[in-house]
Amino acid sequence: MPPFLHPRPAPPAELLPKVIMGVDPGTQIMGYAVIEVRGQRVTVLRYDVVNMKALGSNHAVKLKRIFDRMIELIDEFLPDELAIEAPFFGVNVQSMLKLGRAQGVAIAACLSRQIPYVEYAPTKVKQSVTGSGSATKEHVAHMLRQTLALPPLAEAPKLLDATDALAVALCHHYQKGNNATVAGGKSWGKFLAENPDRLNAATTTKKPARAAKKPA
């Protein structure tokens, strides 16, 4: 007769993996990043950009591209939370309106999958990553490569929006995700518990970090 088997204790909550998606919204180029956090260990799964310059001046087409790409990324990486950068208040009102719409569409895509989100001011993101709220994009990218041991990128100027998105995700990790909110009060984790087939998909679709040579 086999010995009595005791059930294994569940791992501490802080050691369970959490997947965070960071987004730097834009109407020409949208940066995105996906990280996995396990305790204090951060693994970069992917960071890249969605380039919409070739779509012309039709703003509605660009908004649809943002929504569609966000849904693709959500279904691939199954993020637990979204961290998104708030629009920077500039002098061009029309640009601000378009940027706000782009941000709203990205948020709507996550809410359609019951994913909580947090909005961070650009100065807050820079402060969290570099210690200075006035840091440049280049400084942010440099600090991220040191902090996360990222490989040097030959196409760094093209991917500064991607590293900005990575900074947003890391900023959210530093905040411990305490500010995450979701419409209806239902979490993505609860959704996965109710739909275990999505959890199985997560183990087969996650890929190592890479920065694509050809932006999406």
TrEMBL record:
Xref: PANTHER family: CROSSOVER JUNCTION ENDODEOXYRIBONUCLEASE RUVC
Cofactor comment: Binds 2 Mg(2+) ion per subunit.
Binding residues annotated for Mg(2+) 2, in chain numbering: E85
One function term, GO molecular function aspect: hydrolase activity
Annotated catalytic residues: D24, E85, D161
Enzyme Commission designation: 3.1.21.10
Entry keyword annotation includes Nuclease: yes
Location (main, coarse): cytoplasm
InterPro entries the UniProt entry points to: RNaseH-like_sf, RNaseH_sf, X-over_junc_endoDNase_RuvC
Superkingdom per UniProt: Bacteria
Location of the protein in the cell: Cytoplasm
Species name: Hymenobacter caeli
EC category: hydrolase
Reactions catalysed according to its record: Endonucleolytic cleavage at a junction such as a reciprocal single-stranded crossover between two homologous DNA duplexes (Holliday junction)
The protein's name: Crossover junction endodeoxyribonuclease RuvC
Family to which this protein belongs: Belongs to the RuvC family.
Cofactor needs: Mg(2+)
Binding site for Mg(2+) 1: D24, D161
Subunit structure: Homodimer which binds Holliday junction (HJ) DNA. The HJ becomes 2-fold symmetrical on binding to RuvC with unstacked arms; it has a different conformation from HJ DNA in complex with RuvA. In the full resolvosome a probable DNA-RuvA(4)-RuvB(12)-RuvC(2) complex forms which resolves the HJ.
Gene designation per UniProt: ruvC
